[in-house]
Amino acid sequence: MSETQTPALQYRLDGPEDAPVLILGPSLGTTWHMWDRQVPELSKQWRIFRFDLPGHGGAPAYPSGSVTELASRLLATLDELGVQRFGYAGCALGGAVGMELALRHPERIASLALIAASPRFGTADEFRQRGVIVRTNGLDPIARTSPERWFTGGFAAAQPAITEWAVQMVRTTDPGCYIAACEALAAFDVRAELGRIGVPTLVLVGSDDQVTGPAEARTLVAGIPDARLAVVPGASHLVPVEQPAAVTDLLVRHFSSAWQPAYDSTTGQIAIPAAPVKPALVPSQPGPVAEIAPAKAQPEAEGRPDPYDAGLKVRREVLGDAHVDRALASADEFSGDFQELITRYAWGEVWNRPGLDRRSRSCVTLTALVAGGHLEELAFHTRAALRNGLTPVEIKEVLLQAAVYCGVPAANSAFKVAQQVIREETTPQE
Asked: Quick check: 22 and 90 in contact, CB under 8 A?
């Protein structure tokens, strides 16, 4: 175990001390034990380094709210151990960490395996909604539904002990660290950068994965120059647990033949050896590449930069992609200028100021909307308040305060609206 609480991560080492290091990265809600069935075989050739995400598996609860921060903490842990170069295999969020390392620290990565991974995991709204549910109800609703996301129905029914183990892994995770990891996945998007991943990459996916399935895997293969695809039949999202032998075999074959030589920092070059024999994996198949929206043209006028792009980013983060997309899609010649106005000045200027955090701005906004009787806007700003980290209890206190200063009738209407929104947003989806 790491004795340093932060920024190092909790870890475990297996295998010969003088062997090349192979890192196994976990998915959200799991611990390093998700790799238990791979370790006996992999540790014959490699020094296996497994780590726990913050607050997972009893690890110290120091939340990391971005994939970049998780990668930095992993590198700090490896630096303490004197590990400079390694192979890396990661599942889901662990795969995101692997992509981050390959993009920002290519000199450290010898070879890469991305399992149940994606260059963008769903939508930001989905993960922020999950954070709202955990903040309100704890992790039990997420834990109870994890097996249906992670395993095929047949496996879950035939392996009740493993299914219960999966539930307990999630249930014992620190809620704050889980929410922070959801925020990290919400913000992760490397679709435009896949072409810069320069190491041999195995993209491995379960054929029945409904979370990050074969379509996402083919997007990775299409974008990464030296990538090959392996589809494991009869497996869902947590494929190393559901089909351990197949995953172990694929990892052994990949890392045995695709270990890239070291990067020479003095010349900035990598020696190119004779082409290795490729493992007999599923050949790369053409697939749809996620479209990248072109960057909005910046005004060339002198002075302050146009706050539109920053405003659109903040507006989406606070109100959600679905709400903003509806608002922009409904804009026409008559209302389009107004949508630009509020994006540029309400969101790019005021909401983006550093003087108040978003929780405080949500409190102020809710009070102002109660005072003005703007119930429709109160509804979606109640959703925004939950996304910004306010709990239902805190929203109740804001409305009680507003009742004193804005009037009981206004607060009465506000409570009805907020109550309905909170029920919708905090009820776990079965």
From this structure: no
Q: Environment class of residue 136 by beta-carbon count within 10 Å: exposed (0-12), middle (13-18) or buried (19+)?
A: middle
C-alpha to C-alpha distance for 147 and 167, rounded to whole angstroms: 7
| DSSP letter (8 states) at residue 417 | H
Q: What is the pLDDT of residues 384-411, one digit of tens each?
A: 898 888 889 999 999 999 999 999 999 9
Q: Give the C-alpha separation, 243 to 252, whole Å.
A: 15
Nearest to 134 by CA among 55, 58, 32: 55
Q: Which amino acid is at 211?
A: V
Q: How far apart are CA 124 and CA 169, in angstroms?
A: 24
User: Do 193 and 173 touch, CB atoms closer than 8 A?
Assistant: no
E strand spans, 69-134: 86-91, 109-115
Residues 93, 55, 40, 232, CA torsion sign: negative
pLDDT tens digit sequence for 169-179:
999 999 999 99
Cβ pair 380, 420 in contact under 8 A: no
CA dist 375 and 180 (Å) reads 31
For 49, the token pair is 């380094």
Rounded CA-CA distance 73/406 in Å is 47
**Helices vs. strands in the chain: H and E counts, helices first:** 18, 9
Lowest mean pLDDT among 154-168, 292-306, 319-333: 292-306
